[in-house]
Amino acid sequence: MNNFSLTQVDSAEEAVKTARLSTENNRYIAGGTNLIDLMKYRVENPDHLLDINRLNFSEISSLPDNGLRLGATVTNADTAYHQEVQKNYPLLAKAILSGASTQLRNMATDGGNLMQRTRCYYFYDTATPCNKREPGSGCSALEGFNRIHAILGASEKCIATHPSDMCVALAALDATVQVTGESGSRSIPILEFHRLPGDHPEKDTNLEPGELITAIDLPEKGFSQHFEYLKVRDRPSYAFALVSVAAALEIDGSTIKDIRVSLGGVAHKPWRLPEVEQQFIDQQATPQTFEAFAEKLIAGAKGYGDNDFKIKLAKKSIVRALLTALEK
Amino acid sequence: MKVLNNITGVATTRVDGRKKVTGTAPYTAEFNPANLVHGYIVNSTISTGTITKIDTTKALDVAGVREVFTHENAPLSVKINADYSDPMAPPGSPFRPLYNDQILYNGQPIAMVVADTFETARYAAGLIEVAYNTSGKSTTNIKDNLDRAFTDDDLPDPPKPRGNAKKAYQESEIKIEAAYLQPREYHNPMEPFATVAQWDADEERFLIYDKIQGVASSQGYIAGIFNMEKEKVRVLSEFVGGGFGSGLRPQYQLFFAAMAAKVLNLPVKVVMTRKQMFSFGHRPACFQEFKLSTDKNGKLTSIQHKAYGETSQFEKYTETIVDWSGLMYACENVELNYKLVPLDVYTPNDMRAPGGTTGMYGLECAMDELAVKAGIDPLELRLINYAEKDQNEGKPFSSKELKACYSRAAEKFGWKNRKAEPRSHKEGHTLIGYGMATGVWEALQQKASAKAIFTAEGHLTVSAATADIGTGTYTVMAQIAAETVGLPLEHVTFKLGDSTLPKSPIEGGSWTVSSVGSAVKMVCVSLREKIYARAQETHPELFAESMIEDARFEKGELSIRDGRAVSFMEILNADERKSIETSVNSEPAENRDNYSCYTHSCVMVEVHVDEDLGMIRVPRVVNAIAGGKIINPKTAESQILGGVTWGIGMAIEEEGMMDDREGRIMNANLAEYHMPINADVQEIDVIFVEEKDEIVNPLGAKGLGEIGMVGTAAAIANAVYNATGKRIRELPITLDKLL
Question: Is residue A167 a part of any domain in this protein?
């Protein structure tokens, strides 16, 4: 672990200003459940940490349009067990509770969850090349151990996946990420928040340098009737998803009025294709429809050897999650 | 002479439990002598080659850094005439840290920073720059290197072939051929390896706190390296947070801590990181081939079992893998082979039920395949071929209540409800399967010594240099002593984990109760005799005419037939001699050689497999054990629960993932190296069947540390077949293999 200094900031303005003014390598820290590990492994070597836990981002509050605002420093546990979340966004609660462990969820924050870095073995091991950790050094996973790696949207530079469960549900729910930075505040739709690796796998998100997440907004529609978060993994708790599915349906009789499906464990970001969803509106909610939907959602999937199984697994998981959501 | 105190055989809470749960039981890394400095070890990032340059300048410039040790400045004294062997070292040349520039495996310790704080040492360690010359290709995959397998005089011979297995196999109509592969597994006890070493320059003595499964092991190792008399090395290890075999041999942090403490003349603490817990001994990867055949009645006509285990390039580590196949079942034609494959890895190390869990995984899966082929219930096949005597040695068993294990497990589990046809038991998306396997482990006994001191205050202290690696040694030994002498448990203290105590074997092989327990019983019998002799002098009016055989030792009193009694304290306080002390050396009885001594078990499991997604759950396990007398049913059950949990891990989760390009383990942390968590472990029923054994040792007790694991992985694999119709012959059975 690097030597570093830490400042507790008292306002977002101060945080953003400090982050901007410093010429050093800065990181914001909230729960620290991922960052501290990465620092111990020398994957992240910040000179300076800005502790944002004192900022007033620790509330869950209603929005004027009947949506819900999750403050950036609300813990994952407090979010999952919040009455409004449980009632209106059970998909989100289930996704959060399927992730990590009780201890981690008590510490980890909602903003931090968005900023989790990949679990790629090579990213974590500074003895091996990794374009995400050290741009230009190469991707060890391409021809290495890639059982947990991406089948969709990967590039020859990087086949890592985003490890979050929460973000998969947020993607299905069309959440919006509120950020503030040097040039003011802005809203980023969740689907535009994370990036595909392309030529710059070192960039996980579209945040500008120094930008700080202040909240995550959920729209009114929570799909609280027909939903499922299915997490397929190697053990029933404390394991990252091989494939996860956040599925949400709005059904009229047996007709699909709205369908949202987002995948975890398969790409560098939660994988959702709204244009595919549009094609299925007004179709009958049947296993056949869901199979056709799954085919389209994972069209173009590519395996890299150890992870070939994920293609079949993703398809089966999508169908299972949609059927479960339908039966609810 | 009668003992009426019923202390053994009664479920007893751990005597050290309160200390452990209140955090007052000191573990190695918690000792902080004055002026302590901290070491942080740097490991190699290649598996084979040489270090061409190791630049420590930047690390040495960090404020608070005392020294950086590398092969370039390690003291000559640990290179010349230094013996790196330890009591458990296999044949070969033990690894010598910092000996030269050679790299023998990926993760090899190559440097250590010593600094005033752990954090400073860790930071500085990251500033060391190492350049390597990588010579040749790294060779770490057992399956790809079977052509390099060898056997030589250093390897123990497997049992000699009997009959003609090849011919019988050819002539049989019902036969199977199957090969099984299992990956490296890593012990990962909760407590990482740690050493706090102190050097007394005036007396030229070491005082060392070490995490180890037997203080004699560390003591011998250090004495050999530093060319010292063993008596000048005192090793303490009173509490050990799990071992599972990883602590049978000293690990490299011990060398580094002791070497630095001596050179710097300062107390040095070195604690391994979790990642470093993957950088030494492990359960070896193993490839096994079986050919089995039966006649139409299910009687085995041949067994051929060949195993390939990995070892390092510098030591020949062997396990007993194939012998079980000759032992377990009545069969006249048996051929067993065992070979080693040398790879660029660290020498494997015994890991819970070493060899047994591996060999029996293969054998019991193969037996299941044979049962399916023959159309016979798997349990029935075992009963048809039940061995009434040791098939390898031709000896009778000292006791073998395996049939009772089979029937008790079957009854509890509901084996009769098993549907023989795979995929025929289904609820919703869940395929349900039943599987079973036999377990076996050798009931060993080693030489051991013990000492007893009974003070005038009425307190008995019994001691031996054994270990309690979480198994319950403190409790069980106190129970044996209290019962034998006739004292309440609270009046007995058992001391262990100190090399100045009477010699004791390392804690492993499930032999501690059998070996040390026998010594404790013997020393307490001797103490009883001394109490009686003293009583004859101090209370002649009571005991002058009586015989010890007629006396009773109970509740702290010595009484004779007519009911008259005198308390032990009265006897001891009757004259100025006060306390009584006695010591014994115990060893296995000669008669034992005429018998084969084994612990047996029957494991039955239910698995649930998602038909589409392949996820496996193990909702129910029944494990029936024949382990002789159960000294403490509570700690004994815990041992079996732990063993079964390990079996679940072996079957469906554990795998050290090696990137063979660099021979580097890629999942060296507890997030990615999966082992069972609470949600994996559901209903486990432990049954101890009645088993009387007057041969095995004076206690009639067999060990229980390993048996709970043996057979469990096979039973799960067999249940997965029963559920899905898929025979997965490569562990762990992860969901991708079932899709």
Answer: no
